[in-house]
Amino acid sequence: MGIEKLKVTLIGAGGKMGYRLSRNLKDHKAYEVRYIEIHDEGLKRMQELGIQATEASACIHDADVVIYAVPDVAIGEVTALYVPKMKKKAIGMFLDPAAPLAGHLAQRADISYFASHPCHPSVFNWEPDEDAHYDYFGGIAAKQNIVCALIQGPEEHYAIGEELAKVIYGPVLKSIRVTIEQMGILEPALSETFCGALITVLKEGADVAIAKGVPKEAVYEFLLGHINIELALLFGQLPGGKFSDAAIKAIEIGKGKLFKPDWKEIFEPDSVKAQIKAIT
What we know:
The protein is of the alpha/beta class. Helix content is 45%, strand content 15%. A seven-stranded mixed sheet has the order 2-1-3-4-5-6-7, sandwiched between helices. The radius of gyration is 22 Å and the shape is globular. 30% of the residues are buried.
């Protein structure tokens, strides 16, 4: 007698994120996967993978896990439509903390909620294979880590969600358990509101240097090389390494010019909620 497969329904199976998940799930032996997609572009992507969409009425009610791979701006509408139709003791799986922290999840004590998000391949990864080296997003060939949170439900459902997360984001080096509130600090506050803004300004700084007449090649090579060494110095990749005294003085000048005194407030709970409200 074969082992019974876990029934997984993937909503948004042909979307930008859903397509990646579909590719990693479609041939996995542990899961019986059904796919929901309503947009023509997404349906075309699914054809490339050799999978077909199923009507929601045929695959929500009996699913052990329902994965909500939909954009943040649509998550409220989609969860309102499908969460009430999930069977008791099923797991609703989310790919970031937006829906839970925005209050979009139906109040159901008889199902579990689980969230997981990829860290994406680290700048310090060493990938000998070319396909892995250029897999910047992860989920194809490059190793990455993930974070997971059990929002509600029995402890055994954490293990089920984590195992599924390792498949959809694979290859995964390690999974780190956090709370859903901590995941909200990681995204959007740390990775997008903070880091995304800083990296955008990095590119704008490069554009300014080019506009000042510095050759573009010199600007890009100089900036990207210094990003590499400065990250290595700050994040423990060069034990004993440190900035020079002159560099420290320049950094303090830059902080004073670039940052408001209250910039750390973006990590406070009220600010995180406001950021999530804005993106959902």
